Amino acid sequence: MQWPDYVKIREVGLRDGLQSEDRFVSSEVKIKLLRALIRAGVSAIEATSFVHPRAIPQLSDAEVILDGIGDIPNGVVLSALVGNVMGMQRALNTGVREVMVVVSASEAHNRANVKMSVSQSLQALKEISPLASGGGTGVRGAVATAFGCPDQGKIDRGQVSVVVEGMLEAGIKEITLADTAGLGHPRQVYTLVKELAAGYPEVTWALHFHDTRGLGLANIITGIQAGVTILESSVGGIGGCPAIPGATGNVPTEDLIFMLHSMGIKTSIDLEGIARCTRLLEETLGRSLPARVSHLGCKASYTS
Ligand code: ZN
Question: How far, in Å, from the CA of 285 to the mean position of ligand 1?
Protein backbone atom coordinates (compact mmCIF):
# COMPACT_ATOMS: atom_id res chain seq x y z
CA MET A 1 0.00 0.00 0.00
CA GLN A 2 1.34 3.44 -0.90
CA TRP A 3 1.34 6.19 1.70
CA PRO A 4 2.31 9.84 1.21
CA ASP A 5 5.50 11.10 2.92
CA TYR A 6 3.78 14.25 4.14
CA VAL A 7 0.29 15.56 4.72
CA LYS A 8 -0.82 19.12 5.40
CA ILE A 9 -3.09 19.66 8.38
CA ARG A 10 -5.39 22.63 8.62
CA GLU A 11 -6.41 23.48 12.16
CA VAL A 12 -10.09 24.47 12.36
CA GLY A 13 -10.71 24.46 16.13
CA LEU A 14 -10.78 28.22 16.54
CA ARG A 15 -13.52 28.57 13.93
CA ASP A 16 -15.46 25.31 13.60
CA GLY A 17 -14.75 24.39 17.22
CA LEU A 18 -15.36 27.60 19.10
CA GLN A 19 -18.49 28.56 17.13
CA SER A 20 -20.59 26.11 19.10
CA GLU A 21 -19.35 27.30 22.50
CA ASP A 22 -22.02 29.42 24.19
CA ARG A 23 -19.73 31.15 26.66
CA PHE A 24 -17.66 33.86 24.96
CA VAL A 25 -13.95 33.11 24.88
CA SER A 26 -12.05 36.38 25.13
CA SER A 27 -10.17 37.73 22.12
CA GLU A 28 -6.96 37.65 24.21
CA VAL A 29 -7.30 33.91 24.76
CA LYS A 30 -8.09 33.32 21.09
CA ILE A 31 -4.97 35.24 20.05
CA LYS A 32 -2.91 33.34 22.62
CA LEU A 33 -4.22 30.07 21.19
CA LEU A 34 -3.46 31.17 17.64
CA ARG A 35 0.10 32.04 18.60
CA ALA A 36 0.50 28.71 20.43
CA LEU A 37 -0.77 26.83 17.35
CA ILE A 38 1.72 28.67 15.14
CA ARG A 39 4.52 27.85 17.63
CA ALA A 40 3.46 24.19 17.47
CA GLY A 41 4.17 24.27 13.72
CA VAL A 42 0.64 24.55 12.35
CA SER A 43 0.95 26.26 8.98
CA ALA A 44 -2.73 26.47 7.99
CA ILE A 45 -5.26 27.76 10.49
CA GLU A 46 -8.92 28.65 10.07
CA ALA A 47 -8.85 31.50 12.55
CA THR A 48 -12.36 32.97 12.65
CA SER A 49 -15.50 33.77 10.69
CA PHE A 50 -16.98 36.87 9.08
CA VAL A 51 -20.61 35.98 9.51
CA HIS A 52 -23.13 38.31 11.12
CA PRO A 53 -22.17 38.85 14.78
CA ARG A 54 -25.71 37.97 15.85
CA ALA A 55 -25.55 34.64 13.99
CA ILE A 56 -22.41 33.50 15.81
CA PRO A 57 -21.62 35.88 18.71
CA GLN A 58 -18.58 33.77 19.66
CA LEU A 59 -16.83 34.84 16.44
CA SER A 60 -17.98 38.47 16.44
CA ASP A 61 -14.40 39.57 17.22
CA ALA A 62 -12.93 38.49 13.85
CA GLU A 63 -11.30 41.90 13.21
CA VAL A 64 -9.85 42.04 16.74
CA ILE A 65 -8.29 38.60 16.28
CA LEU A 66 -6.80 39.21 12.86
CA ASP A 67 -5.49 42.67 13.78
CA GLY A 68 -4.27 41.50 17.17
CA ILE A 69 -2.24 38.57 15.91
CA GLY A 70 0.18 40.96 14.20
CA ASP A 71 2.93 39.62 11.94
CA ILE A 72 2.79 35.92 11.28
CA PRO A 73 5.74 33.80 10.14
CA ASN A 74 6.32 33.16 6.45
CA GLY A 75 4.57 30.05 5.28
CA VAL A 76 1.72 30.32 7.78
CA VAL A 77 -1.70 30.99 6.25
CA LEU A 78 -4.57 32.19 8.41
CA SER A 79 -7.99 31.95 6.83
CA ALA A 80 -11.49 33.03 7.76
CA LEU A 81 -14.97 31.86 6.82
CA VAL A 82 -17.02 34.32 4.80
CA GLY A 83 -20.78 34.01 4.41
CA ASN A 84 -21.73 36.86 2.07
CA VAL A 85 -20.53 39.99 0.27
CA MET A 86 -20.63 42.06 3.46
CA GLY A 87 -18.47 39.46 5.22
CA MET A 88 -16.08 39.45 2.28
CA GLN A 89 -15.68 43.20 2.51
CA ARG A 90 -14.93 42.91 6.23
CA ALA A 91 -12.36 40.21 5.45
CA LEU A 92 -10.66 42.37 2.82
CA ASN A 93 -10.35 45.23 5.32
CA THR A 94 -8.33 42.96 7.63
CA GLY A 95 -5.97 41.79 4.89
CA VAL A 96 -6.56 38.10 5.71
CA ARG A 97 -4.70 35.97 3.15
CA GLU A 98 -7.39 33.38 2.49
CA VAL A 99 -11.14 33.05 2.89
CA MET A 100 -13.34 29.98 2.75
CA VAL A 101 -16.94 29.69 1.70
CA VAL A 102 -19.33 26.89 2.64
CA VAL A 103 -22.26 25.46 0.74
CA SER A 104 -24.06 22.35 1.88
CA ALA A 105 -24.79 19.42 -0.41
CA SER A 106 -28.01 18.99 1.56
CA GLU A 107 -30.77 21.46 0.75
CA ALA A 108 -32.21 21.08 4.27
CA HIS A 109 -28.87 21.68 6.00
CA ASN A 110 -28.03 24.64 3.79
CA ARG A 111 -31.34 26.30 4.65
CA ALA A 112 -30.87 25.56 8.36
CA ASN A 113 -27.30 26.84 8.28
CA VAL A 114 -27.51 29.98 6.11
CA LYS A 115 -31.25 30.46 5.37
CA MET A 116 -30.67 30.12 1.63
CA SER A 117 -31.26 27.41 -0.96
CA VAL A 118 -28.22 25.63 -2.39
CA SER A 119 -28.65 27.46 -5.69
CA GLN A 120 -28.90 30.85 -3.94
CA SER A 121 -25.70 30.07 -2.05
CA LEU A 122 -23.92 29.09 -5.25
CA GLN A 123 -25.13 32.28 -6.89
CA ALA A 124 -23.73 34.29 -3.98
CA LEU A 125 -20.31 32.69 -4.54
CA LYS A 126 -20.18 34.32 -7.95
CA GLU A 127 -20.24 37.72 -6.22
CA ILE A 128 -17.98 36.84 -3.29
CA SER A 129 -15.20 35.05 -5.15
CA PRO A 130 -14.23 37.86 -7.60
CA LEU A 131 -14.10 40.33 -4.69
CA ALA A 132 -11.56 38.08 -2.98
CA SER A 133 -9.47 37.54 -6.09
CA GLY A 134 -9.59 41.28 -6.86
CA GLY A 135 -8.22 41.97 -3.39
CA GLY A 136 -5.46 39.36 -3.79
CA THR A 137 -7.07 37.01 -1.29
CA GLY A 138 -7.22 33.27 -1.89
CA VAL A 139 -10.60 31.52 -1.84
CA ARG A 140 -11.34 27.92 -1.05
CA GLY A 141 -14.66 26.16 -0.68
CA ALA A 142 -16.16 23.53 1.57
CA VAL A 143 -19.06 21.21 0.76
CA ALA A 144 -20.87 20.66 4.05
CA THR A 145 -22.81 17.41 4.66
CA ALA A 146 -20.97 15.82 1.71
CA PHE A 147 -21.27 12.36 3.30
CA GLY A 148 -24.79 12.51 4.74
CA CYS A 149 -27.28 14.80 6.42
CA PRO A 150 -29.32 14.07 9.57
CA ASP A 151 -32.36 15.83 8.05
CA GLN A 152 -32.10 14.69 4.48
CA GLY A 153 -30.41 11.31 4.97
CA LYS A 154 -28.25 9.94 2.22
CA ILE A 155 -26.43 12.45 0.04
CA ASP A 156 -25.62 11.16 -3.42
CA ARG A 157 -22.65 12.10 -5.54
CA GLY A 158 -24.88 14.20 -7.82
CA GLN A 159 -25.74 16.57 -4.96
CA VAL A 160 -22.05 16.97 -4.09
CA SER A 161 -21.21 17.51 -7.77
CA VAL A 162 -23.75 20.35 -8.05
CA VAL A 163 -21.89 22.24 -5.32
CA VAL A 164 -18.44 21.37 -6.71
CA GLU A 165 -19.45 22.61 -10.16
CA GLY A 166 -20.92 25.82 -8.69
CA MET A 167 -17.65 26.43 -6.88
CA LEU A 168 -15.62 25.80 -10.04
CA GLU A 169 -17.85 28.27 -11.92
CA ALA A 170 -17.02 30.82 -9.22
CA GLY A 171 -13.29 30.15 -9.79
CA ILE A 172 -12.74 28.09 -6.63
CA LYS A 173 -10.33 25.20 -7.09
CA GLU A 174 -9.49 24.04 -3.60
CA ILE A 175 -12.46 22.22 -2.11
CA THR A 176 -12.94 20.51 1.23
CA LEU A 177 -15.40 17.65 1.50
CA ALA A 178 -16.87 18.00 4.96
CA ASP A 179 -18.61 15.30 6.97
CA THR A 180 -20.47 17.84 9.07
CA ALA A 181 -22.62 15.33 10.95
CA GLY A 182 -20.11 12.49 11.18
CA LEU A 183 -22.22 10.15 9.03
CA GLY A 184 -19.59 9.08 6.50
CA HIS A 185 -17.95 5.65 6.49
CA PRO A 186 -14.59 4.56 5.08
CA ARG A 187 -15.87 2.79 1.97
CA GLN A 188 -18.05 5.77 1.06
CA VAL A 189 -15.15 8.18 1.58
CA TYR A 190 -12.87 6.16 -0.68
CA THR A 191 -15.45 5.89 -3.45
CA LEU A 192 -16.60 9.52 -3.34
CA VAL A 193 -13.07 10.93 -3.30
CA LYS A 194 -11.93 8.66 -6.15
CA GLU A 195 -14.96 9.53 -8.29
CA LEU A 196 -14.74 13.26 -7.68
CA ALA A 197 -10.98 13.34 -8.23
CA ALA A 198 -11.47 11.58 -11.56
CA GLY A 199 -14.37 13.86 -12.54
CA TYR A 200 -12.71 17.13 -11.53
CA PRO A 201 -8.94 16.72 -11.92
CA GLU A 202 -8.40 20.50 -11.62
CA VAL A 203 -9.55 20.49 -7.97
CA THR A 204 -7.23 20.20 -4.96
CA TRP A 205 -9.20 18.20 -2.37
CA ALA A 206 -9.19 18.40 1.39
CA LEU A 207 -11.15 16.34 3.92
CA HIS A 208 -12.92 17.41 7.12
CA PHE A 209 -14.49 14.82 9.41
CA HIS A 210 -16.50 15.25 12.56
CA ASP A 211 -15.99 12.31 14.87
CA THR A 212 -19.63 12.09 15.94
CA ARG A 213 -19.83 8.31 15.50
CA GLY A 214 -16.17 7.50 16.07
CA LEU A 215 -15.28 6.93 12.41
CA GLY A 216 -13.17 10.06 11.89
CA LEU A 217 -9.71 8.49 11.79
CA ALA A 218 -10.89 5.49 9.78
CA ASN A 219 -12.39 7.88 7.25
CA ILE A 220 -9.15 9.84 7.10
CA ILE A 221 -7.16 6.68 6.38
CA THR A 222 -9.31 5.80 3.39
CA GLY A 223 -9.26 9.45 2.30
CA ILE A 224 -5.45 9.33 2.25
CA GLN A 225 -5.60 6.03 0.40
CA ALA A 226 -7.80 7.73 -2.18
CA GLY A 227 -5.11 10.38 -2.67
CA VAL A 228 -6.03 13.31 -0.38
CA THR A 229 -3.10 15.00 1.42
CA ILE A 230 -4.86 17.98 3.06
CA LEU A 231 -6.75 17.15 6.25
CA GLU A 232 -8.70 19.33 8.65
CA SER A 233 -8.88 18.69 12.39
CA SER A 234 -9.48 20.59 15.60
CA VAL A 235 -7.26 20.95 18.63
CA GLY A 236 -8.63 18.86 21.48
CA GLY A 237 -11.45 17.70 19.20
CA ILE A 238 -13.44 20.80 20.12
CA GLY A 239 -16.51 21.54 18.03
CA GLY A 240 -19.94 20.71 16.73
CA CYS A 241 -22.37 22.32 14.31
CA PRO A 242 -24.94 24.96 15.34
CA ALA A 243 -27.44 23.51 12.83
CA ILE A 244 -27.01 19.88 13.94
CA PRO A 245 -28.03 19.13 17.54
CA GLY A 246 -25.70 16.60 19.16
CA ALA A 247 -22.95 17.00 16.55
CA THR A 248 -19.49 16.61 18.05
CA GLY A 249 -16.16 18.07 17.14
CA ASN A 250 -13.72 17.33 14.39
CA VAL A 251 -11.15 14.61 14.60
CA PRO A 252 -8.76 15.83 17.33
CA THR A 253 -5.56 17.27 15.83
CA GLU A 254 -3.28 15.51 18.33
CA ASP A 255 -4.88 12.09 17.73
CA LEU A 256 -4.53 12.58 13.99
CA ILE A 257 -0.88 13.64 14.30
CA PHE A 258 -0.12 10.69 16.56
CA MET A 259 -1.55 8.30 13.98
CA LEU A 260 0.26 9.92 11.05
CA HIS A 261 3.63 10.20 12.78
CA SER A 262 3.35 6.60 13.99
CA MET A 263 2.79 5.57 10.38
CA GLY A 264 5.88 7.48 9.24
CA ILE A 265 3.80 10.20 7.55
CA LYS A 266 5.25 13.61 8.37
CA THR A 267 3.37 16.79 9.26
CA SER A 268 4.72 20.23 10.16
CA ILE A 269 3.28 19.94 13.69
CA ASP A 270 4.76 19.14 17.07
CA LEU A 271 2.52 16.93 19.18
CA GLU A 272 3.55 18.40 22.53
CA GLY A 273 2.82 21.89 21.19
CA ILE A 274 -0.73 20.84 20.32
CA ALA A 275 -1.16 19.21 23.74
CA ARG A 276 -0.29 22.59 25.29
CA CYS A 277 -2.98 24.27 23.16
CA THR A 278 -5.52 21.67 24.31
CA ARG A 279 -4.62 22.29 27.97
CA LEU A 280 -5.08 26.04 27.45
CA LEU A 281 -8.47 25.45 25.83
CA GLU A 282 -9.54 23.07 28.60
CA GLU A 283 -8.55 25.59 31.29
CA THR A 284 -10.49 28.29 29.43
CA LEU A 285 -13.62 26.21 28.91
CA GLY A 286 -13.46 24.51 32.30
CA ARG A 287 -13.96 21.02 30.94
CA SER A 288 -12.11 18.14 29.37
CA LEU A 289 -12.04 17.85 25.56
CA PRO A 290 -12.45 14.59 23.59
CA ALA A 291 -8.84 14.23 22.36
CA ARG A 292 -7.15 11.12 23.70
CA VAL A 293 -3.46 11.70 23.06
CA SER A 294 -3.20 14.99 24.97
CA HIS A 295 -4.37 13.25 28.11
CA LEU A 296 -1.67 10.58 28.02
CA GLY A 297 1.17 12.78 29.27
CA CYS A 298 4.70 11.75 28.26
CA LYS A 299 3.45 8.58 26.59
CA ALA A 300 1.75 10.74 23.99
CA SER A 301 4.81 11.69 22.04
CA TYR A 302 6.95 8.57 22.09
CA THR A 303 6.86 8.24 18.33
CA SER A 304 7.14 11.86 17.32
ZN1 ZN B 1 -17.11 21.13 10.53
Answer: 19
